[in-house]
Amino acid sequence: MSASDRATSDHERFENWVRQHGPIVRWYLGATLGRADVAEELTQEVFCRAWQARRRYREQGGARAYLLKIADRLMIDHARRAGWETGLDETGWQLLEPAGGADDPVRLAMQNETREQLARVLGELSLAQRRVLLLRYYGQLSFAEIAAALGCPLNTALSHCRRGLSRAREIIQKSPQTGTKT
Amino acid sequence: MNTEHEPYESQLERATSADPLVDEKLDEETARLREGWLALASLLEEAEAESQEPFRLVQKPWEKRRSFQHWRLVGVLAGSVVLFMLVCNSLGSSPGPDAKPSGREMSAVEKTAPAKVLVTEKIQDLAWDDALDESFARVAYQVIRVRHGWTTSTMDCDLLEFRVKQLQNEINHNTL
What we know:
heterodimer, A: about 180 residues, Rna Polymerase Sigma Factor, Chain: A, Arc Repressor Mutant, subunit A, about 0% strand, globular, B: about 180 residues, mainly alpha, 3 domains, 6 helices
């Protein structure tokens, strides 16, 4: 394979990644941090890092998990630098995704309800619990991989998962929209 | 090897599995965890489905790299131009082989020996550098001038002494 063929192949693969996994990575970062602007900025950075490391990447069908691991590391670096652990609030979620179909008030109201409820649930979880559950949900990572990403023992990652699930269940059950959401 | 966590890991894997068939055979504890997982997943899925905004990169990384290379090239070119101007400037200001000293140095050159010309040329060489070197050059020039004056005075004294001795000899030998 010539150098130009390889470059074209890299570009194509990379553009596929951006198209397929970009929104998920942004969602993961937004849901973990609760800051749309930071999520957008970090997602850009995730793809820059992935591009820089493209020669080291081995294609095994785990592109999303790979990108989410980069995202998680960048998110933690950012949180440490900024010195905060955010709670999710309504404004954060409205910023996270601009409401589509703003001319339809019913749809808009439903969107806001979903976001509010999600914000409430995630806001009640600790950062570690959010990371475990969202890495499992978006990346379908094994618990061993999640523990490695978190830099903690497997038992600790399992414990975060168990507590996070129990807490999420409690909050959703207390919520007035429970019947429609589960 | 620690296998203590295996039952818990297996339980949580089933509770958070994407496979819907898992729901059929769960114990009470796992079913409760599964319920929490499905509720959370449902919320995430709905929120995701409602917003279909695609993600776009502000700038593609390979374009960013090219841009960086472009600026690096501009920097190198600018540096070369500055260096070239400095070299031209220094060549223009330094005295050539035919350059003549001016003012006071000129008179010094005219009056005294070739050694003096060498000294002034050295001072000129130092003078085109920076301010500190210029100060050094001025001090050195002053030192040379004082030494020269001292030497000239000594020579004058010697000459006077010589003339006095000669006069004394002539008196002694009645040849005056």
